[in-house]
Amino acid sequence: MSALKGAAIFGQSGGPTSVINASAAGVIQEALKQENITAVYGMAHGIKGALTENFYDMSKEDAYELDLLRTTPSSALGSVRYKLKHFNEDETDYKKLLEVFKKYNIRYFFYNGGNDSMDTCNKVSKYMQQSGYEMRVMGVPKTIDNDLFGTDHCPGYGSAAKYIATSTMEVYQDARVYDKGMITILEVMGRNAGWLTAATALAAYKGAGPDLIYLPEVDFDIDDFLAKAEAIFKKNGNCIVAVSEGIKDKNGKYISEYGSDLAQQKDAFGHSQLGGLAATLANIVKQRTGAKTRGIEFSLLQRCAAHCASLTDVNESYLSGQMAVKYAVEGKTDYMVGFEREAGAEYKCNIKLLPLSEVANTEKKIPLEWIKKDSSGLTQDFIDYALPLIQGDSRPPMENGLPRFAKLKKVLAAK
Amino acid sequence: MSALKGAAIFGQSGGPTSVINASAAGVIQEALKQENITAVYGMAHGIKGALTENFYDMSKEDAYELDLLRTTPSSALGSVRYKLKHFNEDETDYKKLLEVFKKYNIRYFFYNGGNDSMDTCNKVSKYMQQSGYEMRVMGVPKTIDNDLFGTDHCPGYGSAAKYIATSTMEVYQDARVYDKGMITILEVMGRNAGWLTAATALAAYKGAGPDLIYLPEVDFDIDDFLAKAEAIFKKNGNCIVAVSEGIKDKNGKYISEYGSDLAQQKDAFGHSQLGGLAATLANIVKQRTGAKTRGIEFSLLQRCAAHCASLTDVNESYLSGQMAVKYAVEGKTDYMVGFEREAGAEYKCNIKLLPLSEVANTEKKIPLEWIKKDSSGLTQDFIDYALPLIQGDSRPPMENGLPRFAKLKKVLAAK
Fold first, then answer.
1. First to last CA, chain A
2. Does A398 touch chain B (CB under 8 A)?
3. Class assignment of domain A157-303?
């Protein structure tokens, strides 16, 4: 294992989270310390920044602002959704990357994101191997969706889960306050995997959560749902339902596209839009039951609420970035940093390395045996899994009553 | 001024807030201390609980749980929307109240709410005076809308404003993260007064807020708005807009009822619904500009987010409840407790008493001179006004990573 001297480049990709910048801080601060890393660059808008030679010289940033990245939500360097074609199909982007890497002697490549981003990372890694360009490539996981394969959980999930569970508990207090009750529909992100919606079960575990929880892992039956919601409403005078945005019926049709005229929303190009599921379901429920209904979408707030983040998640996010650098300097390449939970009552997660080719594009869903058959929630297995991930409170330092987020100078690297 | 010995009854009314229970704690804990107050009752669902003899004996509650009310959102005793007819029109409810008050020797009446609730409180006060039933009646203010007349501000507003400003700052980080930008519409509560939407200007003051802010105090011109939003989007690649749910055009038509098929949403009874304004506007903007758009509704979260409350607000809410009791015991009646701000750079508010007849049903709107003519925000006068109200952080004690809210026993008073 030889020492490899050269510059490092780091990028953020995909949907932001409350803690993706904590991983950035881990990568950047650790890389700035490493003797073998001669420069640390941050890509503007992920891989696009590398392709267009738009990246920042991170050594120009104030240490205090880099520290603040730990508690600053969203992607401070800018994100991107750009899918690299396979190099067997089109080599253009790869040639450009190689040219840039050579020009700046970039020998370390760190990429922070979810499934698609690990695909990018994997392709870059494989291409550079094939080209004989010596480079250490490491993926740093991130996704509120928690659907990355091979790791116990993903940085970003714990904070989103904590926010969702907390807000659900608060809505629970609010939604049942009148003498005349209502049916409340909470819409949570998650197209294919129900991890985020399942987090509302943590609120139920604390005695203040939904009566019904619907995840995309299971076909949604509108009639069964309506019957259940109506029965609960008649019995208790209130009913709270949590739904994943991506629930579908047995024919694969999104429920957000259903029935009422509300559901006929098309965008300017005639595409049906996801989102608006809460409003759609609330309307259907109202027509059926006559009950007062309210649809609530957690929307973007669930992925950027740094004021209600999990300290466990923030620390692990930082650590995953930091360890990616350490392992790369030690000679590892072509891996994603992941977490492996130790058996036993006390929560402890260790870092493990996963081959990039294994994690790219594979989705991890909730085990079906963790989902109660009657849609009333998740089993204790899920609670035991998720509860440790939301422990500890992280929030930004406050300045004049409001959060103080990092302000980066973003000095472009000299060309 | 004679000592008046008897029971006290307290009720919560109207839409809940993050801090209405802090006022409840102030009333209940102070009342339990007072020698002249022989029993302390909490109405189930406000005035309806008094009318139906459904109220709880607050002396049966654990001291620790009563303390927790300070940080428990929503209305722990249950709320109600019930408008008492004037007693000249229909005396039925008043006779019933008088009968109940006599039966339990209730001599102190505390009612916590907004405009409508102060109307209830005022009517009860006047009727009891007219009937010669000696009673001390005090209103305790509460409304996130901040629209109560005669007081510098209302308990509940500071916490809602802090949550809205914080979440807006977080969305600001998130909404401009991609290389391809979008136009984001934030919908904030407030039908007639724009105080809550104005709170997004605090985020702008911190450098992370909306480009455009629209309040119901000013007629909304859709063409002017579209031109402005498009220009900002073209120039900056992003645009964030905050709108009050209650914005109307110059003909008095709600914008949420506008134009696109999206806006044709009717409820089961054929009424147009408020809400959905963000989605409506986002759709109109998308059709006009072709930009990616996103509508975000803060929804119920803005009035129940105790995890992001203002400590100033929590303390003042408690104080207003406590002082209502002290003043009543001292002989005051027929007042609402309000706040008067001292002149000077340092924030200091003193309690003042406002005649109930003056505050009932009067709405306080934002001074027009605080609203910038180009819709780009609020003036420094508003910032100076609002900033002190969001200072200090209040959050519930945490238990296993989630908030621990008060659990009341709710022991019904012996009939």
1. 31
2. yes
3. alpha beta
Give pLDDT, residue A103: 98
Question: Which range among A299-303, A362-366, B242-246 shows the weakest confidence by mean pLDDT?
Answer: A362-366
Do A6-151+306-362+394-403 and A157-303 have matching folds? yes
The first and second tokens of residue B264, run together, are: 């044709």
Chain B, residues 195-254, CB within 8 A of chain A, namely: 202-203, 206, 208
- CATH homologous superfamily of B158-304 equals Phosphofructokinase domain (3.40.50.460)
**Structure token pair of residue B189:** 């509560």
CATH 3.40.50.450 fits B6-155+306-364+392-403, yes or no: yes
Q: Please state the rounded mean pLDDT for residues A229-254.
A: 96
What distance in Å separates residue B32's CA from the closest CA in chain A? 25
Q: Which residues of A are catalytic?
A: 145
**Predicted TM-score (pTM) of this structure:** 0.95
Where is pLDDT greater, at B321 or B274?
A: B321
CATH of A6-151+306-362+394-403, one of 3.40.50.720, 3.40.50.450, 3.40.50.800, 3.30.565.10: 3.40.50.450
A–B CB contacts, 8 A cutoff, strictly below: 176
CB atoms within 10 A of CB B261: 13
Determine contact, residues A201/A370, Cβ cutoff 8 Å. Answer: no
Kindly provide the ipTM of the predicted complex, given to two decimals.
0.95
Q: State how far the Cα of B186 lies from the Cα of A350, in Å rounded to an integer.
A: 40
Indicate the domain borders of chain A: 6-151+306-362+394-403, 157-303
The answer to whether the CB atoms of A174 and B81 lie below 8 A apart is no
Mutate to test the interface with A, among B19, B307, B405 (most CBs of A within 10 A): B307
* Residue A113, strand partner residues: A141
Q: Is the pLDDT of residue B139 over 50?
A: yes
Catalytic residue, candidates B145, B211, B313, B334: B145
